[in-house]
Amino acid sequence: SNEEALIRRAYYQISIKYHPDKNPDGRDKFHAAALAYQFLCNRKKLGTGPNRLHIQLMLRAQSIVYSRYRKILAEQKYAGYPMLVKTIRTETEDEELFARVAASEDFSVPQPQPDSTKANDTKNDQRQRESASNAVLLVAATELAYETVATSALNAEELRREGGIQALQEAFTRCSVLLSATSSRPNDACVRVCGHIVSVLAAASQFPSCRQNIQELPQLARHVLRLLYYRNLPQLCCLSASCLAAFCIDYWLCVTSYEHGALYLLLRHVFAYDFTLEEAGVKTTETSND
User: Fold this and answer.
1) In terms of pTM, does the model score above 0.85?
2) Distance from first CA to last CA of the chain, Å, rounded?
């Protein structure tokens, strides 16, 4: 068809431009283009039922639009909350939610090709790759919830009215218990879901009605505090700390956090920071104090 011809022509142009033999710095883009071409041209992915990869693609596309055009969209209300909240609830109630992909990697970001010495690892990664039937939609759905709420106060109110905060609390409960202080990795699906949810709560807590809704769900504060135990996930801990700081706008949320040990948990991270590293000229990163 004409559509397939256009896709094929565009792929050939990109592959010629970024082929590693001609462009040593183009390996990542060449690999990403090949994956995109395979996805678009593989008609086996187009079944009669819902295609989870297509739904995931639509959710991520909306997240990208909101993250790039916040000022333009700030005055517009997001119209998809009924379906978004329903998606979050459906995914949360799915008994095979995380059995679909044991460690769901974010394939929206091009990854470098593995070395030949890692052939076995590559095979394992291919087994874990998300497909039309096993894609984890909860990651993309919670990310979109954050992007929309962070863009406009209208969206925060609409999310609350649609029962979105309650749905996020249920997803938070489901995912937070799967975290591990030894084996969890930043790209695990449950870790990314928890990160998106605490970001939503931090953004929503700017608005009184949303704070009231959060107060009515005291387990939310406990779940946020629980994330501070996972020092092997420093980025998630930072998001949790930011969420707690946002909670402190409200007196009762601040008291609730304090009563559940927020001060002690935060001080553990403060005392673990070595302020002498910079003075000694030691190179550090935001995610490590090693």
Assistant:
1) no
2) 55
